[in-house]
Amino acid sequence: MSGKLCFFTSVLLSMSVVATAASGAVNIAVYWGQNGSKGTLGDTCRTGLYAYVNLAFLSMFGAGRAPVLNLADHCDPPSGTCASLATDIASCQAASVKVLLSIGGGALGYNLSSPSDALDLAAYLWDNFLGGASGAGASRPLGDAVLDGVDFDIEAPSRFYDELARNLTSLYKGATATWGKTYLLTAAPQCPYPDASLAAALGTGLFDHVWVQFYNNPPCQYAPGDVTALQSAWKQWTAGLPAATVFLGLPASPDAAGSGFVDADTLASQVLPMVEGAANYGGIMLWSRSYDKDSSLSVKLQSVLQNRNKSTGAGTSSHNKRRICKWLAFVHSDPLRIAVISR
């Protein structure tokens, strides 16, 4: 890498410090929608805690099924009340929070049966939630909201998600070329590597962010006082996804998953120092907003990290410089990725 390219490291570090001070010490993605009693989408974004909010879930699709949006008690898609979320989505986006639609989830009322099925689903997602124009067959369940992308939370082995990723990316590129808007493709695989449901899709190299679920799987998650299993799995994931930023996915409270919860102090002192070493580390993902509201994990973590950063002078270490130089080397070979990394 040229000296000129690395010269910009100090500039990017300064920008990173400013962003960190303004929005918190770590980028957090969170899932919202499966508990109607834990606050609105607008409330979630107004906390200032999250960089990404995944609307959970489009829980039924494929194999001849009519797609079904399930946001629990927040709204009722058949009666049209989910269109009221458009105002909240716009306020989130105005606050630089990316709002995505997560497809799949734990209900398992979905699968893709063929390449044409994947093509049809991509068109449905585009026309109903993203940049597609309203027209025949487009109901726009979220009103005039235009979401920032699609998240794959596929929890049952299935084929053709690689086709879905390619089809969505093709639609994304057309919109970017025409209107200049960029869209995200993200995924939430289980931590055993490679993921049984998404290995082929992730193998396309088309995903911007991948929030790996390091929970409910003891062989690849944190164990009290022992980061060995997590560290090994983390290295596999970050090495296997060089074109994506990788997030550490965790339950937001002990009640949010059967295992894998990590408290804020342990996260800051033992886990994050280990995962931050990857050049494509992106932040953390939490399941979910309702559990995070109960436990205040993200609030506690941001506080702990900000105190740590004040005492250590975060953002100025040679380690951070090496990480950004690696990013610059990568985007120098593919300038289009600059937009992805900056999101």
TrEMBL record:
<keyword id="KW-0119">Carbohydrate metabolism</keyword>
<dbReference type="InterPro" id="IPR017853">
    <property type="entry name" value="GH"/>
</dbReference>
<keyword id="KW-0146">Chitin degradation</keyword>
<dbReference type="InterPro" id="IPR050542">
    <property type="entry name" value="Glycosyl_Hydrlase18_Chitinase"/>
</dbReference>
<dbReference type="InterPro" id="IPR045321">
    <property type="entry name" value="Cts1-like"/>
</dbReference>
<dbReference type="GO" id="GO:0008843">
    <property type="term" value="F:endochitinase activity"/>
</dbReference>
<keyword id="KW-0378">Hydrolase</keyword>
<feature type="signal peptide">
    <location>
        <begin position="1"/>
        <end position="21"/>
    </location>
</feature>
<comment type="similarity">
    <text>Belongs to the glycosyl hydrolase 18 family.</text>
</comment>
<dbReference type="GO" id="GO:0000272">
    <property type="term" value="P:polysaccharide catabolic process"/>
</dbReference>
<dbReference type="InterPro" id="IPR001223">
    <property type="entry name" value="Glyco_hydro18_cat"/>
</dbReference>
<keyword id="KW-0732">Signal</keyword>
<keyword id="KW-0624">Polysaccharide degradation</keyword>
<keyword id="KW-1015">Disulfide bond</keyword>
<dbReference type="Pfam" id="PF00704">
    <property type="entry name" value="Glyco_hydro_18"/>
</dbReference>
<dbReference type="InterPro" id="IPR001579">
    <property type="entry name" value="Glyco_hydro_18_chit_AS"/>
</dbReference>
<dbReference type="GO" id="GO:0005576">
    <property type="term" value="C:extracellular region"/>
</dbReference>
<dbReference type="GO" id="GO:0006032">
    <property type="term" value="P:chitin catabolic process"/>
</dbReference>
<feature type="domain" description="GH18">
    <location>
        <begin position="26"/>
        <end position="308"/>
    </location>
</feature>
<protein>
    <recommendedName>
        <fullName>chitinase</fullName>
        <ecNumber>3.2.1.14</ecNumber>
    </recommendedName>
</protein>
<keyword id="KW-0326">Glycosidase</keyword>
